[in-house]
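Progress narrative, work stream C.
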Amino acid sequence: MATKTDGYQCTECGWTSVRWVGRCGECQTWGSVAERGAPKLESVSASVPAHAAVPIGEVDIQAAQRTLTGIGELDRVLGGGLVPGAVVLLAGEPGVGKSTLLLEVAARWAQAGQTTLYVSGEESAAQVRLRAERTHAVADKLYLAAETDLGTVLGHIEQTAPSLLVVDSVQTIGTAEADGSPGGVTQVREVTGALVRVAKRRGMAVIIVGHVTKDGQVAGPRFLEHLVDVVLSFEGDRHSGFRMVRANKNRFGPADEVGCFEMGEHGIVEVPDPSGLFTSRHEEPAPGTCVTVTREGSRCMLAEVQSLVASVAADTPPRRVTHGVDGSRVAMILAVLQRRANFGLSRHDVYVSTVGGARILDPAADLALAIAIASAGLDEGCHRKVIALGEIGLAGDLRRVPGLEQRVGEAARLGFELALVPAGNRDPNNRLPRMHGLKVVEVATVAEALGALGLRRSRSSATRASVTEAEYPPA
């Protein structure tokens, strides 16, 4: 039966409500609404702890040793595997492949000899088995349960004693001890809290599937992300088989790593070297294209930016259409090109897109965006083996790029011949590699970068920017 409450009250202004809300309706303060009649801090008496506190140096670190999931790309994102007792939240859009990925994780875990419990609140056990047959994810120690009641799920945990629990999804599980319907704020909070408590008590790793809103945010209260240990987002384009798992929060490892996968007919497979997926092959230099190297955690990946510039009528406002890049960032680069490089496109439509459905958030791709737009405006292709790295400032200058040595090394490994980098970016103790014929050219401004590639509005009258090639000894 649901417990009776005296309502909820804001601790800041005294505003009352019959149900819990995350934000006060009167003073608009977040997290200040609490249950009325709840015990105050002054009335709570001290109790004898079940386990005495010990010095941190005497804590047994073996109890938190990671276990590999069997999927290298996911282990990379998790920081080396799953920690016993860790609770992981995996969120993504419908149809992106969350259930397929976690069924593969559960099967690999069970094939390694460890008991796994897969709880599905959205499909029947037969439907999950059908998908497992298609993706070859059948294992003897993989147990399936189709349940939507929290008490029944906890009973399955007591019976099977798994070392890994997968719940698909938290929005479908409910309990009669909390108000609201499954998927509501109160239900999600109570269900997640119960799973976290049982995970810590039993030392059992838990992976929870979460839904997302239309804005791509994790559905449910923000408290949900604070409660779990790891928050992963599963991203991908519906029209492309490429998928990326990105860590947004990780208490046990780096929170900026990504894992790359590809969805196929027989399930999901890892992509350990995704650089070639975001570039296209051109037999001849193509106008409006440029390649950059983005950095996701410790991984460097090549990404190609494409642009198209078309003139418009005098009475038609120009359009700015972007896909895979930030539209406001492109607008800023267009303004810098006009004011600092004498390259105005105010009477032209500008379209900017990435190859392979990549989503570029790295500011180091600014120079590649500027070169692609300028190349499209002149309808002239630059060298097809050129990469461009640099963040553009409002003064037209190029700012430092973190991890430049790793980025240039990745470009050299893939056969590029010329790299445009910001001037003064190199570390005296870390010299950029010069291998496989790659040349590194330092440029201080956007105008110098365009001049180095011959991308000028009026070549006859414009003075070619002086660009000095940085000579580096072999690494």
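Work stream C, second folded protein:
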Amino acid sequence: MRWIDLGTQDAPLLLFGGPYSNLYALDALLEAGARAGIPTARMICTGDVVAYGAAPGETVARIRAAGCTVIAGNVERQLGAGEGDCGCGFSPGSTCDRLSAGWFAHADAAVSAEDRAWMADLPGMAVFRHQGARYAVIHGGARDVSRFIWECDAEEVFAEELAAIAEMVGPVDGVIAGHAGLPFVRQVGGATWINAGVIGMPPHDGAPATRFAVLEHGRARIERLDYDHAGARAAMVAAGLTQGYDRALETGYWPSEDVLPAVLRVATSDRG
């Protein structure tokens, strides 16, 4: 795995994952950063720039022009290598696996050869120092880019990842990750694990707002991102992306829960 060292970053950092081809959400995030006085050079994306949404090419162009640091997600690796599926880690035959075929075909047709070369060259990990602590940025897992890591996972899961990261880049005090789509901050094994969430899809909580994180004064906080979700959904419908993720932008609920641990699933009766 290629990794990069971002040096010392003591000023506030904006951390985000999964733009997911949702140009409306990415533009809202860049505006939120500007309002907070955080330049794009201090924004770090945990990957999956491209996924469910209507504007894969435009979203890649916007994030490249902005100059944010981007870590390779599973989708970037797959598209960069010319593979035929998203490599998301969904169980074969699951609802998530079947639904991914539609949006991946749309993304595969939309990204250019230049975009694919950019994706193929993205680092798999970044490290930096912030307020005296050392952090690593990954997508899913250190050795498995599509590994889902949830807040409710056993401490052994986090310990395994921290050990793998230490083998690759040396010990760290914190990890910034994405992929799973649900944001959280958890203290584990003497380190802080920060999942910044994703901006392109709501965190399965019944509201359309998405999430990002800010690392400031040595602490991470999860922030809410409001954006024109109705416009994003309309763009998906116009593009024929109506497998259920379009509705999720408005309802706040994913079209399938089969990727989620049982404790994180929402009973149908509890959905408004």
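The mean pLDDT is 94. No further action is required on this item.
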